[in-house]
Specification:
three-stranded antiparallel beta sheet, single chain, 14 helices, about 260 residues, 3 strands, mainly alpha, elongated
């Protein structure tokens, strides 16, 4: 067995440990394998079928490795390599739609809607409607366009793969950040329970942590925004937030009238 085949076997063994895998070890193995893939003398001694399997596994794991680390730049590069590899192969990978689904999630979270629809157009309609890896980003985009953000929150509980979670969190962080900025500009005070509903939090502790990060003052169950300037999110806005802000103001004002 060649050095490359040994490293490949070790990578698969480590990756298949799932939650107990050593991420540092995975990264080191990927880098070692990539170096070997540039050694043409070594590659010439290995069967083409074996090389195809090694390339596929390494490219796919590299993309998933980027997701696990929440490294979106690395994911963008890795998934591009995966797509190029798929195009060069006549046989489909069992992970093909997982990979495409993750790319759709990435494009959606990055607000690259043109890229999202271009990729979606390459997928058969039957697959779009029946494959859970593709269905999920399609339904998420519909929910975001409709402003049904509660559905986005609920989607996290029914995702077809745990790798989807990081992209949903990015979407929700962006949505909540913009809603919060809108609340700060629209209110002097807001009941904590109402704030939780508007921010789509189901866990009260999450609201407290969120409010602390934005330096919201809590007094007698009420958040006070008086004299507070808008807090800009440090993260790049990744979604179309105009509609979010308008809807938030409307619902928030309705709550203010009730209170």
């Amino acid at each position: 067995m060649s050095k490359l085949e040994t490293l490949h076997k070790s990578l698969l063994a480590e990756w298949e440990k799932n939650a107990s895998r050593n991420i540092k070890t995975v990264g080191e193995l990927i880098e070692q394998i990539k170096q070997c893939l540039g050694d043409f003398d070594l590659l010439s001694k290995i069967k083409n079928e074996t090389l195809a399997v090694i390339h596929r596994d390494v490219f796919e794991i590299d993309a998933l490795y980027a997701v696990v680390r929440s490294d979106l730049d690395a994911f963008e590069n890795a998934i591009s390599v995966v797509h190029s590899f798929y195009e060069s192969q006549k046989d489909n990978s069992v992970n093909k739609y997982l990979m495409i689904g993750l790319d759709l999630m990435y494009l959606l979270a990055s607000n690259n809607l043109s890229g999202f629809h271009m990729l979606l157009e390459q997928i058969d309609q039957n697959v779009q409607q029946s494959n859970p890896f593709i269905q999920t980003p399609v339904k998420l985009e519909q929910s975001l366009m409709e402003g049904a953000y509660n559905k986005v929150v609920l989607t996290e509980k029914t995702i077809p793969s745990p790798y989807y979670a990081v992209f949903i969190r990015i979407m929700m962080d962006t949505v909540r950040g913009e809603i919060a900025s809108c609340l700060e500009k629209s209110f002097k005070i807001l009941n904590a329970k109402d704030a939780a509903k508007l921010l789509l939090f189901s866990n009260p502790e999450d609201v407290v942590l969120f409010a602390q990060k934005r330096s919201w003052k809590l007094q007698d169950g009420v958040y006070m925004f008086e004299g507070k300037e808008r807090v800009e999110s440090k993260e790049k806005a990744c979604l179309d937030t105009t509609r979010i802000a308008k809807q938030t103001i409307y619902y928030a004002k309705q709550l203010e009238m009730i209170v």
